[in-house]
Amino acid sequence: MRxxxxxxxDRGRKRSSNEDAFGYSVEDGVYVVxxxxxxxxxxxxxxxxxxxxxxxxxxxxxxxxxVLALAQEAIAAANNAIYSRAQRxxxxxxxxxxxxxxxxxxxxxxxxxxxxxxxxxxxxxxIEQLTLDHSLVEEQVRIGRMSRSEALRSPLRxxxxxxxxxxxxxxxxxxxxxxxxxxxxxxxxxxxxxxxxDKQIHSQLSADQPLADRCTRLVExxxxxxxxxxxxxxxxxAVA
Length: 240
Description:
Number of strands: 11
Number of helices: 7
CATH superfamily: PPM-type phosphatase domain
Helix content: 25-40%
Strand content: 25-35%
Number of domains: 1
Largest sheet: 6 strands, antiparallel
Oligomer: single chain
Structural class: alpha+beta
C-alpha cells in the first residue's frame, strides 16, 4: 500500500490570524493537524510547537520502531513543551492546542486525537467520522443529555474538555484500522467540520479531482458557509 496526500490551511473570513498548524511526511507516513487556542498569539505558538514535536519524533524514528508507542511519546513531549513554555512565560498562560494525527505503515493505520479536530474516512462511497470530539456538548450528546440540534445551538459548543498544553498530562484517544485501496482520510480542524455537514463533506470528497483540488474545494466551501474560524484540511489516500 502506498499513499498520496495534499493539504490546505486558511485563516477563514473572520479571524485576523491563523492559529491552525499542520505537517506531514508521506515518506514517513505521518500526518497531523493542530488547532491552537489562547490570546496574544499563544494559540499559534501552541499549535506550532505540537506539530514540530510530533514530526520531530516520528519522522526521525528508527526502522522497526513501535509507531504507536512513539506517537504517544510524541504527544507527551508536545504537551510538556507547551505546558513548560506557558509556565515560563506568563503571557502565554492557558495556551493549548487540539491534535489529530494519522499514522500509516503499509495497510496499518492509527488515528490519535486530543480535542475536537477530527478524522473522517471515505470508503466505498460512505463517510465515517473516526474520532470522538473531546468537547462539552459532544460529550453531553453521547450520554443523551443533549440533542444534536441543541448541541449546534449551544453557547458552550466551543468548550473543549481535553487539549495539549493546558495540564501537565494528557491522554489521547487511539483508534487502529486496516486501510483498503481507495480509502480517503480527512484530517481537519473544527473550522471546517463546524461549517460543513457530513453530507457536504462527503460531496466534496467524492469529486473526481486531484487531492489538492478537493482540499481547496473543502476549505472554500467552509468559507462560503461562514468561515468563522481558521480552516485546515489534510487529505490522505491509500493507493494499491
